[in-house]
Design goal:
The structure holds 2 protein chains of 2 kinds. Chain A is α/β, with parallel strands linked by helices. Chain A is built from 12 helices and 14 strands. In chain A, 38% of the residues lie in helices and 31% in strands. The radius of gyration of chain B is 20 Å and the shape is globular. The chains are: A alpha/beta, B mainly alpha. The structure holds adenosine-5'-triphosphate and magnesium ion (MG).
């Protein structure tokens, strides 16, 4: 659906040159939710804005639904943009228009027939759950409600793709959840492909199918959310993922534990969670496992269990035990500090 | 009091009418020139929707130059042009052109700063929906800026009333002229005080109307 090929973008302001994107390539498939995560300044906004040419790539190619968008003329670009909805961190609503008009005005400006405008505005305000607030002005709404209006406004164009630039970053966790829920519904029920960027892991975890991790204008790692979560390859990705599931153990305890054995972090997913692997371990080997900490991460379609386990025993026995665990499809990592 | 009104009522009324004529006509013409000029400024400035540094610099310079010339001097400076355009350099008709020349750039600046306050994100959101720049100017920028724009026009209108006082020098009449002629030249301060009171009332009314109107348009 979206095919970004070797895109680079350099901003030149006076004597300063900022390479916001360096040879970025990625593909967003039709119907999926694709997320890009990275710290502030990584170039995420620049990247997503290249998809509807709010920002022009310095080099590279961007295909949307097979069309090379850099070759479009003004009219062609306007038409393309109507197929691509976009929502923003700052909502970007008209302060002088009520909720209904915020959805209806862009349709009017596009020349949609009057009757159709009413039908669509009503329909999408209902979908985002704001029918009863349609006469309210943005200043009378909460952040979450404003984002719902922005989503309704984007959906009212009946786009094929929805771009989201940090749509939940200004919202509290509960409101974030409800907006993510809404995006998931939009994706599943209306079949709209979603390309989002965020710095919140939670967003990726909750609704994305695939993820790319961005750092200093480059994509450093990409894959399905499950893969990236369970087997992060790059330091930065680990940082993001471990931020959530890392168990902080006080140094004292940690030293004590290492005297009598080894510490391992176990990641279970899907099937591997069903068998009582640790119990079996104690029977089969001369190893006593004790659970130090644990937790579950809920991803879009499956959950990932995480355990920090102390294995007490001889080095050789521990080694065999770890091999056994790995054979059970459990991801085992030695924790060294 | 009754005697004063009997004697001066007509003159003051006439002055009031002339002042209002000059103010309203000049304001309307200044708006017709000033708003497009203000729009051009925000579109051509750096980061605008039709960025054009050259044009922006030219417009900017013209506005600055005109705005640095005091009205009383401008009035005489452009006499030949006034003659050419208005056909006369005296009376209400002769003073409208210089008033517009002086006021339109001011209006342009006021409109520019009002429109610059519009959140860039909203403009971008509309661009991302494939809406043309012309429509964005009208339905987003001017719409969102209308409240500060009205306040700006209120300021311009009040400024114009002040300038019309100087129009008396070219025989355009008006309240300012009345106050000057009788209050100063012929030493009848009571006429001057009466005119001042009328001017104060006019300015108060314009400002209150402007404020109320702007508040009504704000919606938040
Ligand atoms: N219009 C611009 N002119 C100059 N530099 C820019 C411009 N837009 C972005 N940049 C620079 O490009 C880099 C990437 O910015 P970008 O906004 O894409 O980052 P981001 O990942 O979205 O960050 P954030 O999470 O803070 O929004 C930054 O160094 C930024 O300063
Ligand atoms: Mg950003």
């Amino acid at each position: 659906m979206i095919d970004i090929q070797h895109v680079s973008k350099t901003f030149i302001t006076g004597k300063n040159k900022v390479e916001a994107l360096k040879d970025v390539s990625l593909k967003v498939n039709k119907g999926e939710i694709f997320g890009v995560i990275g710290y502030s300044g990584a170039g995420k906004s620049t990247l997503i804005r290249c998809v509807n040419l709010l920002e022009h790539p310095t080099s590279g190619k961007v295909l949307v639904d097979g069309t090379d968008i850099l070759k479009l003329n003004r009219a062609g670009l306007r038409k393309l943009r109507r197929k691509i909805g976009m929502i923003f961190q700052g909502y970007n609503l008209l302060e002088t228009a009520n909720v209904y008009d915020n959805v209806a005005i862009p349709l009017k400006l596009e020349g949609v027939p009057k009757k159709e405008i009413k039908a669509r505005a009503d329909k999408y305000l209902r979908i985002v759950g704001l029918t009863d607030r349609s006469k309210a002005y943005p200043s009378q709404l909460s952040g979450g409600q404003k984002q719902r209006v922005a989503i309704a406004r984007a959906l009212a164009h009946e786009p094929e793709v929805l771009l989201s630039d940090e749509a939940t970053s200004a919202l509290d966790p509960t409101t974030t959840d409800s907006i993510l829920e809404l995006l998931l519904k939009v994706n599943r029920e209306l079949g709209i492909t979603i390309f989002l960027i965020t710095h919140e892991l939670n967003v990726i975890q909750r609704i994305c199918d695939r993820v790319a991790v961005m750092e200093q204008g480059r994509i450093v790692e990409a894959g399905t959310v499950v893969d990236v979560f369970t087997q992060p390859k790059k330091q930065l990705t680990r940082q993001f993922v471990r931020n959530e599931s890392n168990f902080k153990i006080p140094d004292e305890i940690y030293k004590d534990l290492l005297k009598t054995g080894e510490l391992v972090s176990l990641t279970f997913l899907g099937e591997s969670a069903k068998d009582p692997a640790l119990a079996t371990l104690a029977r089969k080997f001369e190893v006593l496992p004790s659970i130090i900490a644990g937790g579950i991460d809920q991803l879009k379609d499956q959950s990932i269990g995480n355990l920090l386990v102390h294995l007490k025993g001889e080095t050789g026995q521990i080694h065999d035990a770890v091999a056994y665990l790995k054979a059970q499809n459990i991801i085992v990592e030695k924790v060294t500090g | 009091m009754a005697e004063f009104i009997n004697q001066w009522g007509d003159a003051i009324w006439q002055g009031f009418i002339q002042t209002m004529q000059m103010t309203v006509i000049s304001l309307v013409l200044s708006v017709l020139v000033g708003i497009p000029l203000g729009v051009s400024l925000i579109l051509t400035r750096k980061g605008g929707q039709a960025e054009n540094p050259g044009l922006y610099a030219v417009l900017n310079a013209i506005i600055n130059v005109i705005r640095s010339i005091p009205f009383i001097i401008l009035l005489f400076l452009i006499l030949p042009v006034t003659k050419l355009i208005a056909g006369t350099t005296i009376g209400v008709q002769g003073v409208i052109f210089p008033l517009v020349v002086s006021c339109a750039p001011y209006v342009a600046r006021l409109m520019e700063s009002a429109m610059l306050e519009v959140d860039h994100g909203v403009i971008e959101a509309y661009q991302s929906m494939g809406i043309s720049t012309t429509k964005i100017v009208w339905y987003v920028i001017i719409r969102e800026a209308r409240s500060p724009m009205i306040l700006g026009l209120t300021i311009a209108a009040i400024g114009l009333i002040g300038e019309t006082a100087m129009a008396g020098l070219v025989g355009a009449g008006g309240l300012g002229d009345l106050a000057y002629q009788f209050g100063y030249t012929r030493f009848q301060p009571d006429v001057m005080y009466a005119v001042i009171i009328v001017l104060i009332v006019i300015v108060q009314i314009i400002q209150s109307l402007g404020n109320a109107f702007a508040r009504g348009l704000k919606k938040n």
